[in-house]
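Final report, results section. Input specification for complex C-07:
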Amino acid sequence: MDMRDRGSASSPEVQSDQQKDLAVRVAGGDAVAETELVQLFTPRIFVMGMVRVRDRETVRDLVQEVLIAVICALRKQQLQDPEKLAAFVAGTARNVINGYLRKMTRRPREEALPWDLEQEVFDSEKNETEQGKVLELALRALDEDDRQLITMILAEGLKPRQIAARLGLSSEVVRTRKLRAVRKLADLVRQMSRN
Amino acid sequence: MNCREIDEKAVIDRYLDARLDETERQDFEDHYFGCTDCFEQLRIARMLQAKPERHQTGFRTFLSAPSRRLVALLPAAALVVAFLFVTLYGNWRSSRTVPIHQVTDNVVRRSPVDTNPGAERETLISQLARVDPPPYVPARLRETDDQARAQFDRAMYHYRRGDYVAATQGLEIAARLTPAAVDVNFYLGACYLLTNQPEKAVDALHKAISPNASDFAEQAHYYLAKAYLQEHNLASARTELELTLKLHGAREGEARKLRQELDELQ
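Structure output:
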């Protein structure tokens, strides 16, 4: 089951049965499942690290540390409730990052991810950088209304009701239009990154 | 926390600005680890906020807010002050400072604590054996399909980050795929040196010496000298320095200085 992010997916949630399936497959030693897990969570761990630590070099190391801890725990079947895999990864990431912040030292990793998984992390980071570059192009390709909405919410931090008042719309309409615009933008970024 | 709350409370914006309390922050993190839409929004918001100068609408709005206009000038003012300080302070110091290598040399050579001549000699050799990582600039602009080259690129990604253990692992694989590749062997040798494995460094660096790649050959001889110094094999180190000097390359000055220091030691 491919659990990679799909902006246009019908359901935005990573469903609990999908999480369970992934956790069970990793626990069973499925290498493809490990790759899926790395692809799914690397960008999330990276963003969490950047928000909390704000040092790209350190965050790169921490991402790997988190993934090693998660995969090892899953292999040892230490996850009690496989349906809560996402929360487990988030919790592990927080623990590793907070542990780092308490010590404030960069220590060499004692273990390394297997090479193929490390390549996934590498690709994911590369994508992150490249996507930043294509975002500007993707924004230009959006409708003026969508672009304005995204800018107001995501770049300027306005709340839907503030925008609603400004545009004479209801908050609900603003929310729906924003969600549609974000999905469109995310799809555009993905398409442009591929080309 | 759900998607609606996240919108209504402008959680994404506050999260990126570190304005959430720890409970809200954890709730939001738990949410976006399992929610594709919210994570997409977070990712886009992060990219947009990282590049305000690239985004015309946002930047215009930013400048149009009077209370923020002054804030916008602060980084520029800070830069001017910093520039003036560095320039003035640099001029003042230039006539007074001693180059850092002279300071460290003096500390090592004239340490009053170390009165044992044998130990002092060991310390000096260790000092001479220290290495800086040879610089690496990726030569290829295009992606490569070649498995060994791709492996080399991945390893050098770690090398550039200063993770020499991971770089060593990758370069070992690349060396198995292309045993005769000069650059692979050279950087593998450098990594061994940087991770205190001089014996392996000697093997790899010897493989990096090829008449067809004189730049690497000169560098390889120089780093071989360093490897022998790590092994306290002064005679071989001196031989490698002589070979470095014969090639009249970029390391000539450093090799000459190192040979002189070695002579003084012997």
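Confidence is low (pLDDT under 50) at residues 52-71, 94-115 of chain B. Residues 234 and 266 of chain B are 9 Å apart (CA to CA). This concludes the modelling results for the funded period.
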